[in-house]
Amino acid sequence: MAHSAPSTQVGPGEAKTRRDFLLYATSATGAVGTALALWPFIHSMNPAADVLALSSSDIDLAPVVPGQAITVTWRGKPVFVRHRMPEEITAAQNVDFSTLPDPQKDEERVQKQNWLILVGVCTHLGCVPLGQKTTDPRGAYNGWFCPCHGSHYDTSGRIRKGPAPLNLAVPPYVFTSDTTIRIG
Amino acid sequence: MAVSSNRIVRWVDDRLPIFTLMHHSTSAYPTPNNLNYWWNFGSLAGFVLVVMILSGIFLAMNYTPHTAHAFESVERIMRDVNYGWLLRYLHMNGGSMFFALVYIHLFRGMYYGSYKSPREVLWWIGVIIFICMMATAFMGYVLPWGQMSFWGATVITNLFSAVPLVGTEIVTWLWGGFSVDNPTLNRFFSLHYLLPFIIFGLVVVHLWALHTVKSNNPLGIDIKGPQDTIPFHPYYTIKDLYGIGLFLMFYLFFVFFAPNFFGEPDNYIPANPMVTPPHIVPEWYFLPFYAILRAVPDKLSGVVLMFAAILVLFVLPWLDTSKVRSARFRPIYKQLFWIFFLDCLILGWIGAKPPEGAYLVIGRIATVYYFAHFLILLPLTGWFEKPRPLPDSIGAPVITTVKR
Amino acid sequence: MRRLFILIVMALATPAVALASSEKVSLETQHWSWQGLFGSYDQAQLKRGFKVYKEICASCHALGLVAYRNLADIGFAEEEIKAIAAEKEIQDGPNDMGEMFSRSARPSDPFVSPYSNDPAARVANNGALPPDLSLIAKARAGGPDYLYSLLVGYAEPPTDITLVPGMSYNRVFPGHQIAMPQPLFEDMVSHDDGTSSSLPQLAKDVTAFLNWTAEPELNARHSLGLKTLAFLILLTALFYALKRQMWSDVH
User: How far from B331 is each of B221, B327, B376, B387, B389, CA to CA, in Å?
Assistant: First the structure.
């Protein structure tokens, strides 16, 4: 290369230190700036304000008779609403919950005993479990059965058998009257 | 030559010499040591291309190319998407910046004769990039589906109806229907997303050609030996970075404080195929060509002339008959260059004015001069001009200035 | 060549004389709080402007790109926003019975339009379509100054102008004949905070509100812009210093 080694009048050592300092300071500042500049791009992929705002759905429970289940949509996901029969409630309560894969009492999962409200998404890999229609297979515990990889949920929506690690999630909801709920 | 002492780098390089390639084309590339700041604009344009592609990809994630949703989806980006306004304003103003930089880059090439032998192909690729940019910008402007989007698309696609015999068929084919409508918007979106990557590829070829024939320089004389050059890295890397810093301040000032400076208010009105805005103007970077189009009363001739105004750049290397490259040593060409530059500004100003009265007259004079510059003045000047003596080498004048 | 140059200079000088024909109205330029590098919205003013919009403009003009939840930006509390939204009914559905039904608007809904569609709006307004105001401050040349000048620009027509029936004379509206009758008059809207209800004041406030609906991101944009420019000054100074240092070998 034609280019010769740096030479200045100040003395090579001094100039080199100054140059190294400038090089490090500039590189560090440039790196910080680049990282900060990337944030808006990354953050633009997070849920937008209108998506976050669409978070509540009102549901009328009056037409749902005991033993029946309905599926409603909340945040683009299915929500299972089941009007439980007395025997289903008993089955859910009379389990030694501490032996379950994801130990939880039935009381912690419902606000009113006969209404079970769940996010209908299998906690394994996100399929929608079967069991809403009367003709669906409900798995070994009479709750829901996920056909994708064979997870069995009980009448409280808790995982009992299969690869799913967690119970079906309970969405945030409130009873706005005796027969209506608002999810979200 | 060992590219690095790092074993992993060497392992990869033995199998795919990508590091050697990078070393040759960036760090070791012997660059004339006398390039001035006008040589910053090529790398700046490349930088903006990357910014445009990046912001465009993220905008596309939230944009809907459908006539019923396009306008609203852009407004959703502006209002609801996190930092969506920033992405959109970066993209919008980035378009203007890209053209500004490329115009400076182009005029720099003209001033210093960078299109002359052996750089004709390098110049051609540059002109092709410029044409692709114009197509990309035009189609991108249609996407927000405002009034100017719609009517700009209508007017520009209708240019092709001037083609004899099959004009109407061509326009129908471009539209995918009998007016600018949803199929048009869809294909424009598809092409607007595609073309920047083609431009990116062309930039790589542009650099390949550049590195084959080496950079021109303000003196316009050839590199005589290693004493005339310095390695690109770190000298020109840091100089380019400094340029990027200055440019970013200018660019982001508009993005943050005057984001609609280059825009048209009418494009914030949703497209309405039933009502044409009273005054249709293209974006500023198309104005000179728009002025040439309107200077001619005949439809076909106007269109032909407008395309000729761009295509004439392809033959510029042969129209300029002078052997001397840099305008520094060409007293007459130097004046001609500035008059031509002024002529382009006048055309731009006329393009923004209604085609009537004195504007029309000025537009016609400026159009005639535009072509006279290329077709008459340049060849004649080359033959009759007496250039000033050229320095022996790039190093020579640098040394004299230092001594003085 | 020199002659050509002179010709061009002369050509440049002529249009000023030749083209004085196209009419140019001057706008009443105001000082707006959001102008300049350090400018930002005055929340109290936006709230007053919203009141003017709600009580007067909203009876004809939609604000379709703004949602009730956005009012949080100008200082309304969640409960207030719910109450404002609930004043309006919107159609939703179909429900489980397959029927459309009416419900009160929620914060997540966009501002409810006064008309169900454009033809209905035309029928109600003598054939003229009141434009959606969401972007009006960006969609008119002159922006807020134009809106303000229009709102205070109603006057008796000069004697040489005969108005088309149903039209009003306006100083700044293109063509001077506008389908919208004068919308604002003194004391039409009263404020609790003692702000005057003069016509200029009402016009200024509602213009500010409409600028916010067009550019709700402005405050965030200005503050991020200042930080970014400050950072860039530092970075560019460092680049420059390093460039000088490195190039000292060459010079």
Answer: 17, 7, 17, 7, 11
Q: Is some CB atom of chain A closer than 8 A to the CB atom of C162?
A: no
Cα distances from B314 to residues A67, B123, B126, B127, B336, in angstroms, run 79, 8, 10, 7, 19
The predicted structure's pLDDT at residue C1: 41
Residue-wise pLDDT for B246-278, tens only, equals: 999 999 999 999 999 999 999 999 999 999 998
What pLDDT score was predicted for residue C18?
Answer: 36
Output the domain CATH number for residue B261: 1.20.810.10
H-state helical runs in C69-140: 78-86, 118-124, 136-139
- Report the CATH number that the domain containing residue A61 is assigned in CATH: 2.102.10.10
On whether residue C101 sits in a domain, the answer given is: no
Residues 6+ apart with CB under 8 A from B46: B203
Give the number of A-C residue pairs with CB atoms closer than 8 Å: 45
Mean pLDDT of C112-139: 94
Asked if C247 has any chain A CB less than 8 Å from its own CB, the reply is: no
The residue segments making up the domain with residue A125 are 51-183
Structural domain span for residue C234: 219-251
> Do C185 and C250 have their domain in common?
no
Most C CBs within 10 A among A3, A8, A21, A29, hence the mutation to make, goes to: A29
Q: Are residues A41 and A70 in the same domain?
A: no
Contact list in C for residue A60 (CB cut-off 8 A) is 96
The three-state secondary structure class of C5 is helix
Confidence of residue A1 (pLDDT cuts 50, 70, 90): very low
Q: What is the pLDDT of residues B127-139, one digit of tens each?
A: 999 999 999 999 9
Quick one: closest CA in B to C1, which residue? B336
List of chain B residues whose C-beta atoms are within 8 Å of the C-beta of residue C12: 346, 362
Angle at B118 between CA B239 and CA B47, to 5 degrees: 30
Give the span between the Cα atoms of A79 and B249, in whole angstroms.
Answer: 50
Residues 6+ apart with CB under 8 A from B124: B314
Report the distance separating Cα C103 and Cα C83, nearest Å.
Answer: 14
Domain contains B9: no
Q: Closest chain B residue to C16 measured between Cα atoms?
A: B358
Q: Calculate the alpha carbon distances from A158 to A74, A154, B115, B229 in Å.
A: 20, 5, 74, 74
List CB contacts (< 8 A) between C141 and chain B: 265
